[in-house]
Amino acid sequence: MSRRAVFLDRDGTLVHPRRYPSSADDLRLYEGIGPELCAVQQRGFLLVVITNQAGIARGLFTEEDLEAMNDHLRAELARLSVRLDGIYHCPHHVDGVIPALSISCDCRKPAPGMLLCAASDLDIDLTESWFVGDILDDIEAGRRAGCRTVLVDLGTEPPPTKPERMPHYVARDTVRALHVIQAIETREQVPDPDYRPSGWSGTRGEPVR
Ligand SMILES: [Mg+2]
Ligand SMILES: [Zn+2]
């Protein structure tokens, strides 16, 4: 039987947002996410990080630097008893400076390539899985892969104009996003029913249909 996953964006979703984090010191986990990630994991979901890292194509840091960041992320989560089942990254960007990486690829979100790859590698049923991210490119990637999606609303995103960028649910932070997933999975009432995403038109509360 295929497995289920909660896919997680890294920057702004697992760790505090920062422009082009390039070393382990730049990665600071959000407070309070450990127990929620543990609970999701105990429910049988794989935890897989899906991250655009165009800084590699832009020459801002290397694959080795990213590997060090990944080691740090795994170690910090392990201290909270959370085990990552995979970390997938896209190193590409069309405006990069490293020719081999300066391409239009199938993996950079909003494309679903990294999720499709993870699903194949880890035997994941995407339709039984979730994607949590802080921007609409995450939502689009998740939807195009067939996942349900939760936007962590950091107030950066305009209201979506295309259906494939419309999150299924919106939460004000990652802890609450993980609550939403658990609530849906246990058919409980979704928390924060009155929450309205900042700057959105008022009709797109939580849940978003
Ligand atoms: Mg992000
Ligand atoms: Zn790519």
Commentary on this structure:
By secondary structure, this protein is an alpha/beta fold. The chain has one domain (4-185): HAD superfamily/HAD-like (Rossmann fold, 3-Layer(aba) Sandwich). It has five helices and six strands, in the order E-H-E-H-E-H-E-H-E-E-H. Strands 3-2-1-4-5-6 form a six-stranded parallel beta sheet, with helices on both faces. Helix 1 runs parallel beside helix 5. The longest helix has 16 residues, at 63-78. The radius of gyration is 16 Å and the shape is globular. The model is unreliable at 201-206 (pLDDT under 50). It binds magnesium ion and zinc ion. Magnesium ion (MG) binds at residues 9, 11-13, 133-135.
Furnish the topology, listing elements before pairings:
Blueprint lengths: L3 E5 L24 H10 L2 E8 L10 H16 L7 E5 L22 H10 L7 E4 L2 H10 L2 E5 L16 E3 L2 H12 L24
Parallel strand pairs: 1-2, 1-4, 2-3, 4-5, 5-6
Helix pairs in contact: 1-5
Bound molecules: magnesium ion (MG) and zinc ion (ZN).
The site of zinc ion (ZN) has 5 residues, from loops.
